[in-house]
Amino acid sequence: MDKLEIKATLSVDDAGTISGIAWPFGEPDTVGDLIEKGAFNPAAAMPILYEHDPSQVIGVWEEIRETDAGLEVKGRLFLDSVPLAREVHSLVKRGKATGLSIGFRATESKTRADGNRTILALDLAEISIVRDPCHPAARILSVKSAGGAATPPHERTEMEPELKNESELKSDPVITPEELKALKTRIDKIEAKANRPVAANANHPGADNDNEVKAFTHFVRSGDASEVKSLGYAAPSTGGILAPEAVSASIIEKIAEFSPVRAVASSITMSGPLLQLPRLVDEVTVGEVTETAARPESEPSFEQIDVKPFEMAVIVPVTRVLLEDSQIDLSAYLGNHVARRFGQKEAAWFVNGNGTSQAEGVLTSAEVGEFEAAGTAITADDLIDTFFSIKTAYSANGVWMMNRSSMAVVRKLKDTDGSYIWQPSIAAGVPPTLLGRPVYEAVDAPNPTAGATPIVFGDFAAGYTIADRVGFEILRDDYTGAANGIVKLHARRRVGGRVVLGEALTKLTLASA
């Protein structure tokens, strides 16, 4: 069979709509039936079934109309209230169920010369999402949400040998009027439930995410990788298992608690081994002109900078008994322990990293400007000069970073009126301020001694970029600690970072003794 030309787009979101062509005009299905335009008498709304099972209502078709192309439909899956709807949504998303099939009773038909039927009128009962449609061109065109980005759908190059014969669904009544009425009543109840306001703290993950987290937890707990196929990530060649998105995101969030730079810098997820970013070198020059004078031309110039990921790792020993205890929340356990170690390592890189085997640190980067203090100790005047040493746009969004020793010194500084220039936090979780800008503790910054660079200030969102390559990967080692009943969980991640705009940051360096 020639390759099917499926002119479709496929975009998936949890709160989605689904549309497609339930029956195309002008060509027969696999059993030779033709349905002419004008044969349908669709209702205003109709249930969405899965595989023609009346007990499996997963949504409602809200728009059903005949066009020159065929019977076009648009509907909505009950993702919030029907678990099967989420499972079917996942199948469509992965290209495992991309067909549409209709159930109807033919009321008028004629036999063609080739012995097959042409249906002139019918009573449409339902439209199902199926894996193998009777008509190969009856396909789902899109599964999307408003504003969703489109991606190509699954394409079939040949029909499977075990293609289901669905002629009974077309020639015989598949649903009685009483059953149809009951289905519509059921749809009304499900719609009413789905339309209820969602609580502000609703945090129920989708079916895909549930399956991924369960498979990951099962692997960590038992070492059984048979369910790893349920994860949304492919297993890498290292033999480790990448954590599902929910677990990885939770760990990254906790890492930010130990890594102050991550809390204020820009973050990008890498899809390859190298991230290349354009950086403006020369801005355009605007000239003064008279009313009829020629306008000058000025072209900006750019350079390309590279951000590479570097690997960090830690081994977490856990007793086998602890892993076997079903009451332990392994996601939370790993998140708390691993995130602390990763966060500490990451924080050290982003402050003092060498840029070759580690991420580049803001204090070691040659691109960051430097203000040299007049003395060997921090003064209020030094801080004011540091604040005003960068452009207004950067200082307006700037933050201070220093360790606790520097904080102790700065907190005691006063202005000419005798008021402390340090303003304590006004609420829990809100950082204190210095000259109106937040202060964050960077434990890896040096102490305020002669010749040291203890403080950095600036707009980290504009000046520093973090590139995440592998969020969280884990390898279970059942053997090296087996004699003591220990299972070792080898955790690793790859992350990079560098200064991308040096003028947005500045650092304070004390004079040498």
Can you describe this structure in just a few lines?
The protein is of the alpha+beta class and 513 residues long. The protein is built from twelve helices and 22 strands.
Task: Describe the protein.
The chain is of the alpha+beta class. The protein folds into two domains: 17-194, Serine Protease, Human Cytomegalovirus Protease, Chain A (Alpha-Beta Barrel); 233-284 and 300-513, Major capsid protein gp5 fold (2-Layer Sandwich). It is 24% helix and 30% strand. The strands form four sheets. Strands 1, 2, 3, 4, 5, 6, 7 and 8 form an eight-stranded mixed beta sheet that branches. It has a seven-stranded mixed beta sheet with strand order 14-22-19-15-18-17-16. Strands 9, 10, 13, 20 and 21 form a five-stranded mixed beta sheet that branches. A hairpin with a 2-residue loop joins strand 17 and strand 18. Helix 5 crosses helix 8 (330-352). The radius of gyration is 32 Å and the shape is elongated. Mean pLDDT is 74; it is low at 1-13, 141-174, 198-208 and 227-239.
Helices and strands in order:
Layout: E1 17-24, E2 34-35, E3 46-50, E4 53-66, E5 70-77, H1 83-93, E6 99-111, E7 117-130, E8 140-144, H2 167-171, H3 177-194, H4 207-222, E9 241-242, H5 245-258, H6 260-264, E10 266-269, E11 275-282, E12 301-307, E13 310-319, H7 320-324, H8 330-352, E14 369-372, H9 380-387, H10 392-396, E15 399-402, H11 404-411, E16 422-423, E17 433-434, E18 437-441, E19 455-458, H12 460-463, E20 464-477, E21 486-499, E22 505-509
Parallel strand pairs: 2-7, 3-7, 10-20, 14-22, 15-18
Antiparallel strand pairs: 1-5, 1-8, 3-4, 4-5, 6-7, 9-20, 11-12, 13-21, 15-19, 16-17, 17-18, 19-22, 20-21
Helix pairs in contact: 5-8
